[in-house]
Amino acid sequence: MRRVVFNQKGGVGKSTITCNLAAISASKNTRTLVIDLDIQCNSTYYLLGKKIDDADKTIAYFFKGCLGSGFFGNKKSSGLEDLVHETPFPNLYIIPAHIELEGLQDRLVSRYKIYKLREALDQLEGFDHIYIDTPPILNYYSQSALIAAEKCLIPFDCDAFSRDALYRLKDAIAEVQEDHNGSLEIEGVIVNQFQSRAKLPKKIVEELENEGQRVLKTRLSPSIKVRESHSASKPLIHFSPKHKITEEYLSLHQEIN
Fold first, then answer.
1. What per-residue confidence (pLDDT) applies to 197?
2. DSSP string of 39-67?
3. pLDDT at position 78, please?
4. Are the C-beta atoms of residues 154 and 166 closer than 8 Å to each other?
5. How many whole angstroms separate alpha carbon 9 and alpha carbon 6?
6. Which helix (H) or strand (E) holds 228?
7. 255 φ, ψ (degrees, to nearest 5)
8. Which residues of the chain have pLDDT under 50?
9. Distances from the Cα of 83 to the Cαs of 33, 46, 59, 97, 102, in angstroms?
């Protein structure tokens, strides 16, 4: 199963959701891979505790190879195997991001390499679940992820700006579905930073549900534990397995599996 976590609005928790769902998947003895496509490298740092300086050990090397004639001449190879890093957590692996992705984007777009990631993932073996973290913009990398994925999760924080962004996002995904990936399914909207005692978040979520939006039942609460887990470079299932926010992530994982 390939899932992309995507929203064009920044600060909605894409990397946190990606890494924590992947870590829970891995904790259930499922070989799980995270692919970080965001030049901020937040997922990379969260799971490895550092960024990778050598671009040739990251997803940037794969995309550079897509621009080179015959770079992946062996069709039995996806071009991704050598870029997979073990994390400190059993069954959890990552292909890191690198800032060099930014400089490659225009060349990749001009040479229409938009299907290369999907083709490579079709050949990659050994993983039961793949989670793809994306930049907060509909660019070449997020489009590549949407084309490569089977399901899409949309993080959402409860304010009017996020609501407007959600409508634009769904239009963008619908265009990708129509033009490139008819089997892509919007798995659901993940309500993040949900304040259960506040009126506005409840009102916005109820309105989305009444509109027929596919809002997942699990709500993720604000918690300092999330920031602490970032600082420790440990997903919540390893950092604080009994905490309320961890239980919410476990519930979310169960809901989508």
1. 81
2. TT-HHHHHHHSS--S-GGGSHHHHHHHHT
3. 65
4. yes
5. 9
6. helix 224-232
7. -65, -35
8. 69-76
9. 11, 17, 7, 10, 18
Q: 4-20 burial by CB neighbour count: b if 16+ within 10 A, else e?
A: bbbbbbeebbbbbbbbb
Angle at 75 between CA 74 and CA 76, to 5 degrees: 90
Q: Which tokens sit at 257?
A: 């599996």
Tens-place pLDDT, residues 145-190: 999 999 999 999 877 777 888 888 999 999 999 999 999 999 999 9
Fold of 2-156+223-256: Rossmann fold (3.40.50)
Query: Residue ranges of the domains in the chain?
Result: 2-156+223-256
CA atoms within 13 A on the CB side of 97: 25
CB 182 within 8 A of CB 209: no
Predicted pLDDT of residue 77: 52
Q: What tens digit of pLDDT does each residue of 49-70 get? A: 999 999 999 999 999 999 984 4
The answer to whether 133 and 37 have CB atoms below 8 angstroms apart is yes
Angle between helices 116-123 and 59-66 (to 10 degrees): 110
Structure tokens at 175: 């265009």
Longest dimension (CA), the chain: 58
Distance CA 92, CA 85 (A): 9
Q: Spell 214-247 as b/e; 16+ CB within 10 A means b.
A: ebbebbbbebebbeebbeebbbbbbbbeebebbe
Angle at Cα 69 formed by Cα 63 and Cα 72, nearest 5°?
60
Classify strands 151-157 and 185-192 as parallel, antiparallel or unpaired. Answer: parallel
Cβ atoms of residues 54 and 42 within 8 Å? no
